[in-house]
Amino acid sequence: MVGSRRALMVGLLMLVTAVAFEAQAVSTAMPAVAADLGRLDLYAWAFTAFMIPQIVAIVWGGRLSDAVGPIRPLQAGVAVFAAGVALSALAVSMPMLLAGRFVQGFGGGLTNLALMVLVGRAFPPADTGRVMTWFSFAWMLPSFVGPPAAAFLVRWASWHAVFWAVLPLVLVGSLLLYPTLAAQTVRQILTHS
C-alpha cells in the first residue's frame, strides 16, 4: 500500500509538473517560435490559446469528475494534453501552433482538475494539505527551472524541443499513476470519504 501510494504521489507530481512546465517554458521559447513561424500579430494568442480552454476544462472537468469520478477525466485530460504538446511541437505555422496550444490548455485544465479530485479521494483528509503543498511546489519549480531549461533547449536544439521535452514527464507520470489507479487497493482508497 505504501509503495502504491508513493507511485501514485510521484505520478501525480510528474503530471502537474508537466502541465506547469508547459505553461511557463513557452514564454521563453516564443521569441524563437515567432522568428521561425512569423505571424507576430498572433504572438499573444499563444498564451491566450492555452489559458482560455484551460479555464473551460476546469469547469467542465469538475462536473465530469462529479458524475463519473476523476479517473476517466484524468485519462482523457492526459491524452488530450499530450496530443496538444505533439501538435505544438510539430507546428509549421503559427495557426497550427495556436491549435496545439488550445488542445494543450484544454487537456491541462482537465488533467489538473481531475488530479485535485483524485487527491481528495485517494488520500486521507489528514494528508491532503501535505499533498497540495507538493502540488504547489510542482507548479513553482517550473517557474524557476522552466525558463532557463527552455532557453537551453531552444539554443541546443530548437523551440520544438521545448514541447517534446514535456512528453517524457507525461509518459513516466502516467506509467506510475495508471497501474496504481487500476489496483484494487487504490479502488478501496478511492471509496474512502
What does this structure look like?
It is a single chain. The chain has 193 residues and is mainly alpha-helical. The protein has helices at residues 2-37, 45-68, 71-89, 94-122, 125-156, 160-164, 166-182, 184-190. α2 (45-68) packs parallel to α4. It is globular and about 50 Å long. The two termini are 18 Å apart.
Give the gist of this structure.
The protein has 8 helices and no strands. With about 190 residues, the chain is mainly α. The mean pLDDT is about 85.
Task: Give the low-confidence spans.
Answer: none
As an assembly, this protein is single chain
Mean of pLDDT? 87
Order of helices and strands: HHHHHHHH
Q: What summary fits the major beta sheet? A: none
Share in helix: over 70%
Q: Which class best fits the helix and strand makeup?
A: mainly alpha
How many angstroms separate the termini? 18 Å
In what range is the share of β-strand residues?
under 5%
Shape: globular
> What is the CA-based Rg, rounded?
17 Å
Instruction: Tell me the total number of β-strands.
Output: 0
Alpha plus pi helix count: 8
Furnish the topology, listing elements before pairings.
Blueprint: H1 2-37, H2 45-68, H3 71-89, H4 94-122, H5 125-156, H6 160-164, H7 166-182, H8 184-190
Helix pairs in contact: 1-4, 1-5, 1-7, 2-4, 3-4, 3-7
Give a quick set of tags describing it.
193 residues, 0% strand, 88% helix
